[in-house]
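Review this today:
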Amino acid sequence: MKITRLPDLAGKLPSGERKLFRRIFQVEEAWGRLRVPEALKPWVEEKFGGVSLVEKQRVVKVTNKVTLEAAFFNELRSRRPVESSKEALESLLEAGECLFCKPETFTAEDVFGRIRGKHGVTAANIARYDRWHGLVVFARHNPLDYRREEVLDCLSLAFKWFRQVRKADGKAVFPFLLWNCLWRSGASIVHGHLQITISRKAHPKIEYLRRCAARYQSKYGSNYFQDLFQVHQALGLAFKRGSVRVMASLTPVKERETILLADRADTKLFEAVYTVFKAYRGLGVSSFNLSLASPPMAPVRGWQGFPVIARMVDRGNLEERTSDIGGMELYAASVIASDPFQLAEKLKKAFKVS
């Protein structure tokens, strides 16, 4: 099953799901045509598998009409030649003498001290982007080799830190977590670590999503996130694992984006995050971004029905010199080479969903 079949698949949905799909999504097929000169044809044959594939290309453009997130899919983009540089990755991932290998000595601590777990410890971010900005530093160095208990322990530590900050600053109610894994994701340090903030106002992109969902609720009398999951599930792109809803996004911010929805940030959600992590490793993903946004930790008007949202996205091959994000992603829409239907099959296998 391929994203190129999405228009047909959407048209064949049961009437209720088809109505929801059309309410939330807009799909457009665009055919790009060009002429390949004779001198270039051997190179095109070698790199793309055929001149005809290049001279007439199908682009599937999917737009979320509620949030205006959009993804333009063209499988040919996965075959583009890119420059690469062989790095001694193995040596970088070996336990060594980086600052985070000795966090108690070489990282700053919060004014209330550190919170320690079995597999990690908190630290204060030395170059902040918010009033409260901390880290959870994994005990082991290699971020691609973490076991289930390590990931669950460090995610749990993050929420202990949120609660500790709340004691020091009662106005800080909006928690947010990031895991930038290795340099293509924006990480400046190889050693595995989570970034954690809790702020007095929701970060703007999270607040924008809340407002979109509120407008949807007001207009249709229905919960946006429930309807979004229902559409993905009807297409075979989503499933439930206990209380956690798992989706291969139809409008990924970049390659292979998985979205997890849950009512609370608990062990069940953390287990699901780890399962996605393992699935990505099975796909050869070595650099990724994970975000986890939670509703406020105290009552705030307008946040009813907003779930805990975890999003994870592949950031590409560590050896490639070309960035996966360009002007289109910054200023227009995401251009995607991977297929969410293929990702969904891998996720179902990882979660043991038939």
